[in-house]
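Reply to dn_fold:

You asked what the input looked like. This is it:
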Amino acid sequence: MTLKNQYSTFTLECGTDEAGRGCLAGPVTAAAVILPTSFKNTLLNDSKQLSEKKRTKLKPIIEDTSVSFAVQHIYESEIDTINILNASIKAMHGAISELKSTPEYIIVDGNKFKPFKNIPHTTIIKGDSKYLSIAAASVLAKTYRDSYMEKIHEEFPMYNWKQNKGYPTKEHRAAIKKYGITKYHRKSFRLLPEQYQLDI
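and this is what came back:
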């Protein structure tokens, strides 16, 4: 399926998406991207459909050709304080506010968003596989977050974050069981299934 350039009739339409919502460790990261209306790229798709190699190849292309882009991390302690959904939206708002050009319209991946300033917006389920700007935002959010996780992996290699990027893999959960949690773990998340079992 070919991804569409625009949802609205506005020239400065920004797509936004986040990565890392379901992770046990690390930030939730959002990106906002305004692409030129003439933008074309056959490789670009939802970042989950792309290999790491393709995402890495697309990152500089998106950055060089976009009208403007920005990325924002919201870290564990804030996720624990305001919850993951609010943190995801806050990260998107933060990325949008850092764009060099103020968007005239915002399209958001998913179905949850809070109005940003007075800019009209539309939430689009699976938007990252329908619109180029959301797909571009998903690629930037994922690549920036992945490189952050690879960096903190050096500090705590036993969790293998360079591989699992903080997602709840069997190996990650086993490491939490063995070593406990780090400052990068989200304390409000169900880190181990046993947290739901009562000691009777």
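The longest helix spans residues 132-153.
Hope that clears it up.
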